[in-house]
Task: structure prediction
Amino acid sequence: METRITALLNIEYPIIQGGMAWVADYHLAAAVSAAGGLGLIGAASAPASWVREQIRRVKELTDKPFGVNIMLLSPYAEEVAAVVAEEGVSVVTTGAGNPEKYMEQWKAAGIRVIPVVASVALAKRMERSGADAVVAEGCESGGHIGETTTMSLVPQVVDAVNIPVIAAGGIGDGRGIAAALMLGAEAVQMGTRFIVAKESNVHENYKHRVLAAKDIDTQVTGRSVGHPIRSLRNQMTRKYLKLEAEGASFEELELMTLGGLRKAVVEGDVMGGSVMSGQIAGLVTREQTCAEMIREMMDQVNMLFAKAQERIK
Ligand SMILES: Cc1cc2nc3c(=O)[nH]c(=O)nc-3n(C[C@H](O)[C@H](O)[C@H](O)COP(=O)(O)O)c2cc1C
Result:
């Protein structure tokens, strides 16, 4: 399948694996890229030396294109920005901020820059500052979220910019991909489904929570302090929401979640940790390899497009 995104990124299928903090390491990124999608390493708040090592490991496993997601609020953002340029990474996606100050450096290194946006205004601003594409991420997503749903956000961003748009949030199978393409997106970014990939190194407890989740099992914490995060309901989210309702300060709430994702992903503490996951978890019921997932989803997309006229008369 060819779109402006598959051409831009030189990938076979319009599927990008989100650069998830703690989850998206070199194993997962390499497996997705080797299977014809685009794998991303999640740099999150990791030091630049860790990111460099991860990049080199991906290169040992595959010669296909891959990228790095840079969290711009990271204390190491500046060093990581330099590392991706030095290591010849082909794609950078950015979250939590505005990547304008790195744009020139990355463009000079031939990097495709794809900011994640949750509004039309930010999408337009990113296009003006030279972004090659944007990820329009709806609030069904796992992790840090905006206000607008994927269904509403994607077509509005598509209309507002000329660069290609990648849809994210709530996409878990071929139906989601076909729907996103219909909304005008030219690829999708998926997080939650890849958490349970065989090549994903997250703790078994975390995988089991995602695999067992139902449609209504996610909760959003931090709305009152302007820091909304979607994760699976547990002791931590219940306590957090109670404190939030009582008017706790940002600092108090932050303290509760500090290191929470690491606790869940690495230690398997799915009661007290932060089990970030999207609303689509209810649809994710099988652990498969990345290649199996991508093949199955693309078969489904092709079947849906071929059968659409039969189904709708
Ligand atoms: C555990 C987890 C961690 C995430 N961490 C990041 C991150 O560090 N940077 C980022 O840009 N997006 C992050 N995301 C968002 C994903 O990259 C992706 O856009 C999102 O999961 C898509 O929605 P879905 O979960 O419904 O597939 C994270 C998502 C999850 C589930």
Q: What stands out?
A: Residues 134 and 176 are 18 Å apart (CA to CA). The chain has a mean pLDDT of 96. Residues 18-21, 23, 42, 44, 69, 71, 95, 116, 137, 140-143, 168-171, 189-192, 276-278, 280 surround flavin mononucleotide (CB under 6 Å). Residues 290-311 form the longest helix (22 residues).
